[in-house]
Specification:
eight-stranded antiparallel beta barrel, single chain, Cyclophilin, alpha+beta, 8 strands, about 35% helix
Length: about 180
């Protein structure tokens, strides 16, 4: 019986020492983690995110203004201030052959997918620059209603001669930063 008590006491002491070591280690790791966390700045995270969104743009990367050249005509457009607008802007400059569709739009299948958040607009407006699905760029040159869902990318600022410039067949369009 004495021997059993001695073994039990010895095991209890070893267990106590082991627990003390683990508690010390746990406290040490927790202190290091919170010290590292407290030294992080959310300002750096935000600016790094903005840098990523604007990477590759040598001109004024804070502007959402672009130029759209169709033949000898240049139109300015304003991109949306979201992930879709930023992803499209990262592709610029971009020269594409847009195909005619339905007598009201030109479209082009981009080689890469863009972030999409589609919704059905109340109506399509002349000059709307939209994304159908996640990679079809659509430029509308007439106003009409639609049952289809699109993600807005931007809008042509002055649409006065847009339809005439686009014509009624396929057309080459260059999108570039202002």
């Amino acid at each position: 019986m004495i021997n059993d008590t001695y073994q039990f006491t010895t095991q209890l002491k070893l267990l106590n020492e082991l627990l003390m070591k683990h508690c010390f280690l746990l406290n040490f790791v927790t202190a290091v983690f919170f010290t590292a966390y407290a030294s992080c700045s959310t300002d750096n995270v935000i600016s790094n995110k903005a840098d990523i969104l604007n990477r590759g743009n040598n001109k004024d990367s804070m502007s959402n203004k672009i130029n759209m050249r169709i033949g000898s005509n240049t139109f300015s457009a304003t991109l949306t201030n979201d992930a879709t607008g930023a992803a499209f802007k990262a592709l610029l400059p971009l020269t594409i052959n847009m195909k005619e569709l339905n007598g009201n739009e030109k479209y082009f299948d981009l080689p890469t997918k863009l972030p999409a958040d589609p919704s059905t607009p109340a109506g399509i407006q002349t000059g709307d620059l939209m994304l159908y699905g996640s990679n079809t760029l659509v430029l509308f040159y007439k106003t009409f209603s639609t049952p289809y869902s699109y993600t807005k990318i931007g809008k042509v600022d002055n649409v006065a001669s847009l339809a005439a410039a686009l014509g009624n067949s396929n057309v080459t369009v260059t999108f570039e930063l202002q």
